[in-house]
Amino acid sequence: MSVERIQQQFRDSAATTLEALETLSIPIAAAIDTLFTALANGNRILTCGNGGAATSAQQFAAKLVSHHERERPGLPAIALTTSSSMLTATANADAFEQIFSKQVRALGQAGDVLLAISTSGNSANVLAAIEAAHEREMTVIALTSKDGGQVNHLLAETDIQICIPAGRTARIQEVQLLTIHCLCDGIDAMLLGDD
Q: What pTM did the predictor assign?
């Protein structure tokens, strides 16, 4: 393995992160405000995504329920990606496109927030979850990339899109994780004060 190839991965990651810094700071700050307001009002955060985005969704929910970097009481967050029984039952009985939307309709309440993660912005089950969230009068925070895909056509004026300016999946997922960390840190700072 070439050391230069490995070093190029680090350079590419750093360049993508720095480009994202310029474009994502404002929507991430808006997302933090939205999440904090929902939590302060006793609402919950639901989150979903496929593949690597499912991992990001689960990590976000885990950090809210447990903690990020500082100890605090748990916050109500549910990753809609974690129950294999729920996912397979819905996919088998209904359709794979409904694995998240059925859960949003069952669990979501007005004032809750859906963090919908889709690298392409075109995942049918994430799009269906966004539609279900709007039916339940929830706010949507969409974490996408490139041009935002079909998610662009579903978002309401009160929703927030965090669109990562990258084309390679590995770079997108790295910035997704950094975004998740920023959201968790921002919520903690609003709850506990600056560290």
A: 0.94
Order of strands, edge to edge, in the sheet holding 113-117? Answer: 77-79, 45-48, 113-117, 139-145, 160-164
Interatomic CA distance for residues 54 and 82, integer angstroms: 9
- The Cβ of residue 114 has, within 10 Å, a number of other Cβ atoms equal to 26
79 φ, ψ to 5°?
-85, 120
Helix (H, G, I), strand (E, B) or coil at 47: strand
Measured between alpha carbons, how far is 9 from 20 in angstroms, rounded to an integer?
16
Name 26's Cβ contacts closer than 8 Å, sequence gap at least 6: none
pLDDT confidence of residue 83: 87
Domain count, the chain: 1
Query: Once rounded to an integer, what is the mean pLDDT over residues 116-144?
Result: 97
- CATH code where residue 51 lies: 3.40.50.10490
Percent of the chain with pLDDT over 90: 86
Range of the domain at 28: 3-192
**140-155 burial code (b ≥16 CB/10 A, e <16):** bbbbbbeebbbbeebb
